[in-house]
Design goal:
By secondary structure, the chain is α/β, with parallel strands linked by helices. About 45% of the residues lie in helices and about 20% in strands. The chain is built from five helices and five strands. Strands 2-1-3-4-5 form a five-stranded parallel sheet.
Length: about 130
């Protein structure tokens, strides 16, 4: 089963994202970017990341920068889920796979996750 790493500090939204994705994907939930970055650098893997922008410790923008500068993680598709429409271009320039504005349609999120996992599978160099 493909793994989706969800990084979000809003507990109700974490619950919703897990509910939308559970069954089709293994969902790992973390509450801040630093926790997620540590998890990844400890040797854990995921097929896609969903992250918020505004979070404690390491925010979504910093996480995107770290991922795109990393040889190991730069091919992991990242979907930004944020309440800030004005950050879209900056995130896309940093390598985000997609940017969804809250509130989002659950079907749209699931379709983008499916598309991102397929994109990752097709573009990962072994």
């Amino acid at each position: 089963m493909k793994k989706v790493l969800v990084i979000e500090d809003d507990e109700p939204l974490c619950w919703l994202l897990e509910k939308i994705l559970r069954g089709k994907y293994e969902v790992i939930v973390m509450n801040d970017g630093m926790e997620a970055w540590s998890w990844l650098t400890d040797g854990n893997e995921c097929d896609l990341i969903i992250t918020d922008i505004r979070m404690p410790s390491l925010d979504g923008m910093e996480l995107l920068e770290n991922l795109s500068n990393s040889g190991l993680f730069k091919n992991i598709p990242v979907i930004i889920v944020s309440g800030y429409e004005d950050m879209r271009n900056q995130c896309m320039d940093l390598g985000a796979f997609n940017y969804l504005v809250k509130p989002f349609e659950p079907r749209q999120l699931l379709a983008e996750v499916d598309r991102g996992v397929l994109y990752n599978k097709e573009n990962v160099v072994a």
